[in-house]
Amino acid sequence: MSESAGLQFVSPYAFEAMQKVDVVRLAALSDPELRLLLPCLVRMALCAPADQSQSWAQDKKLILRLLSGVEAVNSIVALLSVDFHALEQDARKEQQLRHKAGGSNGESILVSQLQHGLTLEFEHSDPLRRLRLALSELLAIMNKVADSNGEWFLKSSELFESPVYLEEVADVLCILQAELPSLLPIIDVAEALLHVRNGDWFLCLLVANVPDSFNEVCRGLIKNGERQDEESMGGRRRTEALRQLCQMNPSQALNIRAMVVEECHLPGLGVALTLDYKPDTADDAVSPLVSYVSGLLLGTNGKVRTWFSMFIRNGQQRKRESSSVLWQMRRQLLLELVAILPRSRSTHEPNDSVEDAESSSGYSGLREEHVVKASALLRLYCALMGIAGLRPTDEEAEQLLQLMTSRPPATPAGVRFVSLSFCKLLAFPTLVSTPEQEQLMVMWLSWMIKEEEYFESAAGVAASFGEMLLLVAMYFHSNQLSAIIELVCSTLGMKVRVAVTNNLSANITGFLPIHCIYQLLRSRAFTKHKVSIKDWIYRQLCETSTPLHTQLLPLIDVYINSILTPASKANPEATNQPITEQEILTVYQGSTAGGGRAVRSRYSITTQLLILYYILSYEEALLSNTKQLALMQRKPKSYSAILMDQIPIKYLITQAQGLQQELGGLHSALLRLLATNYPHLCMVEDWVCEEEVTGTLPLLRRMLLTSNTCRYSQTQLHDAFQKVPSSGPRLMRMLDHLTLLSAGDLIPYAEALTGSMGLLLGPSVPRRIPQTLNKLWMVLNTVMPRRLWVMTVNALQPSVKMLRQQRYIQNDLMVDPLIVLRCDQRVYRCPPLMDIVLHMLNGYLLASKAYLNSHLKETADFDRQSQTISNLGLGQAGQPDTPEVTREELKNALLAAQDSAAVQILLEVCLPTSEVQTGPLGAGGDAESLLQSMRAAPGPIKQEEGARRAEGEGEPDGGLLSDLREVQCLICCLLHQMFIADPNIAKLVHFQGYPQALLPLTVAGIPSIHICLDFIPELLAQPQLEKQIFAIQLLSHLCTQYALPKSLSVARLAVSVMATLLTVLTRAKRFSFFMPTLPCLVAFCQAFPPLYDDVATLLVQVGQVCASDVSTKTRDIDPLITRLQYLKVKPQEVVSGGDKSKLSLPQRAAEELGGADPDVQLCYRIEATFMDIISTSQHGL
């Protein structure tokens, strides 16, 4: 932006004074410097301040005094006096108008038709019109920038180009942006100013009057900038503007340079800022330019290295320009190189002999203080030539050779310099292009051989450059070029061995080895060259701490991908190795979850959580990539279930929950993986229970546990359980003490607590003991659920001597969750233990679903692949997919069977034990009970409950305070959750049916059972008569419980179905169907009185059909039909007759005729139903 070269910019001194609001320094400014800052100072003096302190009042007086003698202040005050609200409304209307017109500049609301040019109009206008003119012009430029799609343009605007009015236009611009910030965001204004002449000058004034926006404006310009700024005019103007901003605020120049590297935009700006940077204290060793460029090219960030290398390559393709930042950088580097060169003879002078050259005094050695800087320059030129592709000019090559062949002092740094020079010669032999230069290199190599021993002894190093010369000679002799390359790269530092970062955390900033390894893993460099990286990643994961470094999770993800996915299809074995199970177990050895007082693990909680994240992510990725692995015929090993059982997953998640702020996104990522792979560890009930365990009240209770409180051993607890009920008080004291312990401290008592559960099922055990045990079990469930569940299931097995007890493991219970219900039958009447059983059952049903899903994914694709190979050429095109579909259907059928079986068993538990239960459909008593088939051995439930009732501990079955009622409530609560989670379970169970006696309990106790209204019509359409009967009975209870419009429509459908069946059923089936369903009509009429007419008509029709079959047998049938017709037409007269005995007469007749003809019994059942309907309506009224 050379057009603004003659303009005065804001000085760093003035900007710092504005930034700090230093009134004394502002007063010291000259009039031209102060003129640039007037918009902000005038607003500061006129606007009401937020700071009401006395010191600011004094400063404000000084500002007013400072402004009093400046003539331009009056025009700025006039600008601030306009109605900016009305101005903003007009501006927004103009924006809408331009948007509708497609961006054309035809009609304007802000500015009417101009009589003269824009500059003359601005000169002759009042303050408001000046604001409108500038605002209209600025909005037009901003709209054009927004519509340009990144294409550069330069807008010709005489308002921003006229040198006479630049200061006044700048005042207007600053006032507009300050008063209309929502209409004119400062970043958008800055972008627009880049497209006009003198834009960098306007931009600096704008930022100087809003100094707090400096970083925001710079970041916005960098983000919107080009990746290569010297490729276009727009990039060069943007770089120049940012350079001017940094010259105005030099303290932020390095921060702006860091933004450039972070965004990988405007590389020329980063170099320019480095060239402009003047450090407070000069570093004689390495210059800022060498340090900056070396860091970009030799750093670990591959993206940055590629970005800057492209800047070097592209810059060389253009003609040499003195204004080019690249040529400025090269010139500065050359100057630094020449400045440290020793005085030497010209390489063009001939030398008669090596001895004469060596004895010549023309060579003066490299000065010791310049050796380190010379080494840094050599490494930088190696990186520029080897990585960025820099082609040195003749002058640069000549001076580089002079530096390489200089002779340093015999110090360790000197030895390092000679090694670097030798390796640079091997890496870039094209530097030697003339015979004179070749002769110079021969002389230098001869000097190296001669002086090697002296350097080794004088420098005090174990190995000098002689060993390197010998190695290179051997490698050249045996043609081992790869070994030479390795040696050169390691010496130049362009290929290094990466060490792990100790105690890696987010507090360690900058480029770290983990960034390098991450990029190499992404590019599959390790697998392509068969380099094992597993050990490095494992060691780095073990060396982590909080707060979590943000690169760790991406590193694990890309590492897992490199394990499962080969680098190329041609080489499917090119994968990394996974972490071994033994290494994983080492991390969790001695962790807290193994025992409350065990030795703490030497690995941090961060390491344990990261390893857990790795395992879960690996297993998930293994399942999701099964198809691709099958096609490649690869089957990576999955981690064993034994390993997973030894990892305290729930304990680690609980620990992570309290460290969410320090762990970043690790906690949420673990929860996502758990919900997918271990849903039984993410149950809502567990989270609610954890709140109760870790809440304020438990904390206050644990505060009562002082250090000198008596502690009980596991043996003492076990002995107390063995002597129950006589040891009841002592056992309660122990259990109350355990309730004060934390979940981790309670872990050692888990075996004693679970192993003694069966002893609490006796008749004389106080209720408080199992209740307290239930609380302790729930606390343990928050830290060790899986092991606790297995121990509990084994402890609650039936204690019958004739049966051999089986010890179950975790895998057994996931394969068959119904094992949980094969417990001692006395558990079914012990609510605290039943609550535990239901909790485990729910968990194992969820675990079984996840287990079968993963098993299906693990095996289905390999089976399909093998079948595809074996049937190649024999089957049809879609044949290989058939087994997968079948397996999926079988899996769903198995899960549905498990869930429905569990529900049926739980429903049967709800039945009173004194009743003789029938089959699931209630159709007869011959079918063996499903619950009895599931139980391992019969248990004395009746005797147990009788004993308890004899002791006065419980109410009889069916009472409101009985154990049965409490168990029923617990079961209904679980069934409610199951029906909500999967409504298909409710549909399947009700299509199977269950005893009619349970319908009042299920309808009243399971709130979600109302969903049955959706499929009752389908159930009524089933051909089995039993299912139709069950549907009508269920519907009658639902109508009473949920008197909804939907219930009314379904009830009307049921009455219609009953009327239809009347016409098709045989005499025997008619009796079997209508005897149990006619009483349901009473509930229909009670819930929905409008159904009375349809129900009465149906009852009369049924009565007529029955009467026609028995008219020859019973004389009372015809009068019965007459009575039914009378009841249908005038039911109120029967009610108002006052003879209550008539209402019960048909029932007595039916009882007397119990052995009579079925049709006769049905006729009297019809009349009894009529009377019940009438009686119900009478009570309702």
From TrEMBL:
InterPro entries: Int2_metazoa, INTS2. Residues 940-959 are annotated as: Disordered. Residues 942-952 have a biased composition (Basic and acidic residues). The keyword Nucleus applies. GO terms for biological process: snRNA 3'-end processing. GO terms for cellular component: integrator complex. Its main location: nucleus. Pfam families: INTS2 (PF14750). It is found in: Nucleus. Coiled coil: none annotated. It comes from the Eukaryota. PANTHER family: INTEGRATOR COMPLEX SUBUNIT 2. This is Integrator complex subunit 2. It comes from Oncorhynchus mykiss (Rainbow trout).
